[in-house]
Design brief:
By secondary structure, this protein is an alpha+beta fold. 28% of the residues lie in helices and 33% in strands. It has helices at 6-12, 16-56, and strands at 62-67, 73-80, 85-90, 100-107, 114-119, 125-129, 140-147, 161-169. The chain is rod-shaped and about 120 Å long.
């Protein structure tokens, strides 16, 4: 039989320093895993939030800057098909009189202008319901001053254009 020396037994024991290092590394690993999990959860929440906001953001498809007679910006028109609305923003101080209305027109080449509606608000920004089909093939938008309520359906503008501008289709 062989006898085991006490010095051999102490050589096989793990040093307290190695045990402390192993425990420390295990704690570092657990903290790293917890941080990774937390960061992934936050990243997923941020992605979901950004996707939800992207759905809410208007997807402007058509833009028109209407100019007055001096070629100064008078009105900005943008179309969002999701809302089915033409957003009009006044860029100057021209307003309708008590007996007047501003009427918005769609122009397709040399064809007769088609009315998109009458501006019913005196605010700087307003929405006008317009179907996407009403803007198909339209190259310009224009605004005329008409008698209160606008011209009868099927007739063209009775007065010259107040504002006019090209309708630009944005690439998405």
């Amino acid at each position: 039989m062989t006898s085991i020396n006490s010095s051999e037994i102490s050589d096989r024991r793990v040093s307290p320093w190695w045990r402390a290092l192993a425990i420390f590394l295990l704690l570092v690993l657990l903290i790293g895993w917890a941080a990774h999990s937390s960061m992934m959860t936050q990243l997923q929440a941020q992605i979901q939030h950004a996707q939800a906001r992207l759905v809410e953001v208007p997807q402007i498809r058509q833009v028109s800057l209407l100019l007055d007679n001096q070629q100064k910006p008078a009105m900005l028109a943008t179309y969002n098909p999701k809302d089915g609305a033409l957003l009009l923003q006044r860029l100057n101080d021209v307003k309708e009189g008590r007996e007047d209305s501003m009427q918005v027109w769609a122009i397709v080449g040399d064809a007769a202008p088609r009315s998109l509606g009458v501006i019913e608000s005196k605010y700087k920004t307003l929405q006008m319901p317009v179907k996407e089909a009403d803007l198909q093939g339209v190259t310009e938008l224009a605004v005329s001053a008409e008698n209160k309520g606008g011209v009868p359906a099927g007739t063209g503008p009775s007065l010259p254009w107040l504002f006019k501008g090209w309708l630009v289709v944005k690439s998405i």
